[in-house]
Design a protein that fits this description.
Mean pLDDT: 81
Distance between the termini: 61 Å
CATH class of the largest domain: Alpha Beta
Number of domains: 4
CATH topology of the largest domain: Chloramphenicol Acetyltransferase
Order of helices and strands: EEEEEEEEHHHHHHEHHEEEEEEHEEEH
Low-confidence stretches: 90-116, 164-171, 219-226
Structural class: alpha+beta
Strand content: 15-25%
Largest sheet: 6 strands, mixed
Shape: globular
Helix content: 25-40%
Strand order of the largest sheet: 9-18-17-16-12-15
Number of helices: 10
Length: 455
């Protein structure tokens, strides 16, 4: 019996994954547990395994395609089993309930048996654009190989179809949706363009021509303006990060508090501990110490260790600290589980391992799940303070700047001290300003008197 392979949801915020590479092809014999393909998310590159023994009867998703969670990826048949081919565009497949067969209506004898509707062949980009603008792909003329609809076909259809005037905007300019979007992106005034479409409608080419004309006649002509700029596609990990960060900003009532802390004793403690641990080849970083600091502070302020759902504010029983690790074109947040119960040396070993394996795409999905609070440290990049964005579904995140020696007033004298700026972003729907400030005070207290960590 044939078995379906579908896109797994590797964490609660994942909505789609990118097909990085197929490790098998149609007709290959596979065994249960054998890696079939590489899936890229905003957090990790994961190998999805075969759920059964059998033969790859059909593959659906192309390499590089962004596929929704639960979408069909492949069909695995038993050896020797004849499996009928299915026409499915995986990039557009949505989670749907199986259609139930409707009973024959005896009162309509003239009705002829219906045949299954076959979705037109279309590229993922074409189908995505059509869905965004509510376009029926069966109305679009295909120009691609094998009758496949391309994104340019959808754009051509958009430009040529008749506009649907809004009843309350009788004086609105006639322009295709794509032309309006391009005009907004390029800063082109639609009212100044003579449309070449039906009834004077402004279409895509009109906007592009107007935009090109504006670029061709700059006020000050420089070589840089005459060179084509590189376009970096917003796809794969970059696209997913953009969606999640936008969702975080739009759904959270984010507020950021900044405070400067005297970290002189913090620096001294790290140096002392590393001297003691040198024989064991252990070297503590400031991030390692901060994971322990934040974990202890969260135990004293559990309202920061929460997540908001439709049911209300969930106080989470475990303290799992995510540590942001920067990649070449992305960001991952591996999680130190039960950080409040771990020793500093164990935290250091985990964080170091996370960083090394993150840069080699070797983290597992389990190491990226379950975070209750995140730390992001930009001190190594010379940043003093910034506004971090909450990592959903958490309720707060701590941004850490560089430690900088500067003259300050200490015990009524101007002396040189090591100062550190902390930035706490929190969801004001869950936490009020005063409790958030108290949490930041507790964190600052541990940094100013870090020997409390050893008690």
């Amino acid at each position: 019996m044939a078995v379906e392979l579908r896109m797994l949801q590797m964490d609660q915020t994942m909505t789609k994954g990118k097909i990085g590479k197929w490790l098998v092809k149609e007709g290959d014999t596979v065994t249960q547990g054998q890696p079939l393909l590489e899936i890229e998310t905003d957090k990790v590159v994961h190998e999805q395994e075969s759920p059964t023994d059998g033969v790859i009867a059909q593959l659906f998703a192309e390499e590089g395609a962004n596929v929704p969670v639960n979408a069909l990826l492949a069909i695995i048949g038993a050896p020797g089993e004849e499996v009928a081919r299915v026409e499915v565009d995986t990039a557009a497949e949505q989670q749907q309930e199986p259609e139930q067969e409707e009973p024959v209506q005896p009162t309509r004898p003239e009705a002829t048996p219906s045949t299954p509707t076959v979705a037109p062949k279309a590229s993922p980009a074409a189908r995505q654009l059509a869905e965004k603008l509510a376009i029926d792909l069966t109305e679009v003329k295909a120009s691609g190989p094998g009758g496949r609809i391309l994104e340019s076909d959808v754009q051509r259809y958009i430009d040529l179809r008749e506009p649907v005037p809004a009843p309350t905007e009788t004086t609105r300019l006639k322009a295709s949706p794509l032309a309006r979007r391009l005009a907004k992106e390029h800063g082109v005034d639609l009212s100044a363009i003579a449309g070449s479409g039906p009834d004077g409608r402004v279409v895509r080419d009109d906007v592009l021509q107007a935009s090109a004309t504006a670029v061709e006649t700059p006020i000050v002509e420089t070589p840089a303006l005459q060179q084509a700029t590189e376009v970096i596609p917003m796809d794969g990990i970059r696209e997913i990060i953009a969606e999640r960060m936008t969702m975080s900003v739009q759904t959270n009532a984010s507020v950021t508090l900044h405070t400067e802390v005297d970290a002189t004793a913090f620096v001294e403690l790290r140096g002392m501990l590393n001297d003691k641990l040198q024989a064991r080849e252990v070297s503590l970083t400031y991030t390692d110490l901060l994971v322990k600091v934040v974990a202890n502070a969260l135990c004293e302020h559990p309202r920061l260790n929460t997540t908001l759902t439709d049911e209300g504010i969930h106080l989470l029983p475990e303290v799992n600290i995510g540590v942001a690790v920067a990649l070449e074109d992305g960001l991952v947040v591996p999680v130190v589980q039960n950080a409040d119960k771990e020793r500093l040396s164990e935290i250091s070993a985990q964080v170091r391992s996370f960083a090394e394996r993150a840069r080699n795409n070797q983290l597992t999905p389990g190491e990226l799940q379950g975070g209750t609070f995140t730390i992001t440290n930009l001190g190594n990049f010379g940043i003093d303070a910034f506004t971090p964005i909450i990592n959903p579904p958490e309720s707060a995140i701590l941004g850490v700047g560089r430690i900088l020696k500067k003259p300050v007033v200490h015990e009524d004298e101007i002396v040189i001290r090591s100062m550190l700026t902390l930035s706490l972003t929190f969801d004001h729907r869950v936490i009020n300003g005063a409790p958030a400030a108290q949490f930041l005070q507790t964190v600052s207290g541990y940094i100013q008197d870090p020997y409390l960590l050893l008690v």
